């Protein structure tokens, strides 16, 4: 028999529907026994019915992360093995990536694929693993073995997120988990373009695979245009605009010296030379362009997560508005603005509201041309809205 936690009256409904995150406030206080961090526990409702089972962590605001629902009594590894198989099937047979065009994608999207906190990105013959749920740490070797067997990769490298360290209390260090030590840089393919990914120093797991479809969507609005890729990281929006969209020139801006150097090298690697990479703060660089009267036909804004949690919502929304205002100021009349938010704590309505306000402050009119989100290799698990975080909008600004 597993230890159990008990929900307060009338709190069980979302979990019957499959919501995996249980916050402290919805559970009754434990009497007598204190569950261990990382322990796999049962959750019951106030009448004693089993609602599910999951990993406990007293340090995290998400006190329990459910893996099993209803009366599923299987051990964690049996359930996880099944979910990994389902995740691989989605990418291999349903999405069906053509490896000659795209060999970099998310293989396991945590709660979105029904495995709490487990992120696995595939980059050609390599996997990058990130465990954001303390209870999975003790299963890591088994997870790596299972993933390696299922994919036939050469090696698996571990990244540790700030969230895992600060909020889950993960004891892990970054490094090799399984197989061969990967090279300093791994060449990957996305939408037929080549990039170099550095597992050790790159942001997140090394490359943003969630924008793949949006990069192609935006390329569709770039014919003959001058493109600005603000918050460029690897420059992937710009390279798609040049290669697939017929943009005549691209400017990439990022504050990271590593990112700017990577953009330059990606230009050479893909024989796309009509690109200029600028290191700097986007807000300052855009002010400078506005002052000089420098304009672009297409502007892409893809800032980092500005609202990490609800508490910073107001401040973050103000920053989104400022970025969008500055972006609009360097657009030609009738130009295209692509704008993103990767903050899960910002709703679609809030984000569109910010862009609307930015246009009003600039006396511009907007037409919304396209709405996007993360790609299908980052599935949203219904009803867990938090597994969908990315907002992508394309506007014409008049
Ligand atoms: N558009 C990228 C992903 C961007 S991630 C892609 O498609 O892959 C956000 C990027 O913004 C990071 O590379 C980070 O270095 C950069 N960044 C953060 N704050 C910045 C600022 N104030 N000015 C310029 N770049 C910034």
Low-confidence stretches: none
Strand order of the largest sheet: 15-14-13-16-17-19-18
The string of secondary-structure elements, in order, is EHEEEEHEEEHHEHEEEHEHEHEHEHEHEE
Give the integer mean of the pLDDT values.
Answer: 97
State the domain count: 3
Number of helices: 11
**Taking Cα atoms only, what radius of gyration do you get, to the nearest Å?**
22 Å
Cα(first) to Cα(last) distance is 65 Å
Q: Percentage of helical residues? A: 25-40%
- How is the quaternary structure best described? single chain
Question: What's the total count of β strands?
Answer: 19
CATH class of the largest domain: Alpha Beta
Strand residue percentage:
25-35%
Bound molecules: S-adenosyl-L-homocysteine
List the helices and strands and how they pair.
Layout: E1 4-6, H1 13-16, E2 21-23, E3 40-44, E4 50-56, E5 62-69, H2 76-95, E6 104-109, E7 118-123, E8 126-131, H3 134-137, H4 140-151, E9 155-159, H5 162-168, E10 175-179, E11 186-190, E12 193-197, H6 212-219, E13 226-230, H7 236-245, E14 249-254, H8 257-269, E15 275-279, H9 282-292, E16 296-301, H10 313-329, E17 331-341, H11 348-361, E18 366-372, E19 391-397
Parallel strand pairs: 1-3, 8-9, 13-14, 13-16, 14-15, 16-17
Antiparallel strand pairs: 2-5, 3-4, 4-5, 6-7, 7-8, 9-10, 11-12, 17-19, 18-19
Helix pairs in contact: 2-4, 6-7, 9-10, 10-11
Bound molecules: S-adenosyl-L-homocysteine.
How would you describe this structure to a colleague?
The protein is of the alpha/beta class. It folds into three domains: 4-69, Roll (Archaeosine Trna-guanine Transglycosylase, Chain: A, domain 4), CATH 2.30.130.10; 76-187, RNA methyltransferase domain (HRMD) like (Transcription Regulator spoIIAA), CATH 3.30.750; 208-397, Vaccinia Virus protein VP39 (Rossmann fold). Helices cover 30% and strands 28% of the residues. The protein contains eleven helices and 19 strands. It has helices spanning 13-16, 76-95, 134-137, 140-151, 162-168, 212-219, 236-245, 257-269, 282-292, 313-329, 348-361; strands at 4-6, 21-23, 40-44, 50-56, 62-69, 104-109, 118-123, 126-131, 155-159, 175-179, 186-190, 193-197, 226-230, 249-254, 275-279, 296-301, 331-341, 366-372, 391-397. α6 (212-219) packs across α7 (236-245) and α10 (313-329) packs across α11 (348-361). The structure holds S-adenosyl-L-homocysteine. Residues 203, 208, 211, 231-234, 236-237, 253-256, 259, 281-283, 302-304 line the site of S-adenosyl-L-homocysteine.
């Amino acid at each position: 028999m597993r230890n159990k936690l008990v929900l307060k009256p009338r709190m069980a409904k979302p979990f019957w529907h499959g919501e995996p995150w249980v916050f402290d406030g919805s559970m009754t206080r434990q009497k007598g026994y204190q569950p261990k961090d990382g322990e796999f526990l049962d959750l019951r409702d106030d009448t004693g019915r089993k609602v599910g089972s999951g990993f406990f962590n007293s340090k995290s605001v998400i006190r329990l992360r459910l893996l099993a629902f209803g009366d599923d009594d299987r051990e964690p590894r049996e359930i996880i093995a099944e979910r990994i198989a389902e995740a691989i099937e989605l990418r291999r047979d349903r999405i069906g990536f053509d490896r000659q065009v795209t060999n970099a994608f998310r293989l396991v999207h945590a709660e979105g694929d029904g495995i709490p906190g487990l992120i696995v990105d595939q980059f050609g013959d390599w996997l990058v693993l990130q465990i954001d749920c303390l209870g999975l740490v003790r299963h890591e070797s088994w997870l790596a073995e299972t993933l390696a067997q299922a994919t036939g990769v050469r090696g698996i490298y571990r990244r540790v997120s700030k969230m895992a360290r600060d909020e889950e209390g993960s004891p892990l260090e970054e490094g090799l988990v399984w197989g061969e030590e990967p090279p300093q840089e791994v060449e990957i393919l996305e939408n037929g373009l080549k990039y170099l990914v550095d597992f050790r120093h790159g942001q997140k797991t090394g490359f943003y695979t969630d924008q793949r479809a949006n990069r192609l969507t935006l390329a569709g609005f770039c014919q003959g245009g001058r493109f600005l890729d603000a918050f460029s990281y690897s420059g992937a929006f710009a390279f798609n605009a040049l290669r697939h969209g017929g943009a005549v020139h691209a400017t990439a801006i990022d504050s990271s010296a590593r990112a700017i150097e990577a953009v330059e090298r990606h230009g050479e690697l893909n024989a796309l030379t009509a690109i200029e990479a600028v290191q700097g703060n986007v807000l300052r660089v855009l002010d400078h362009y506005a002052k000089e009267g420098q304009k672009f036909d297409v502007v892409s804004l893809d800032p980092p997560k500005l609202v990490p949690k609800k508490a910073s919502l107001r401040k973050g929304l103000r920053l989104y508005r400022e970025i969008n205002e500055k972006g609009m100021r360097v657009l030609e009349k009738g130009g295209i603005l692509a704008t993103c938010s990767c903050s899960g704590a910002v709703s679609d309505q809030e984000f569109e509201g910010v862009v609307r306000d930015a246009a009003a402050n600039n006396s511009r009119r907007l037409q919304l041309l396209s709405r996007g989100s993360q790609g299908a290799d980052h599935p949203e698990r219904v009803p867990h809205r938090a597994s969908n975080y990315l907002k992508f909008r394309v506007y014409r600004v008049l």
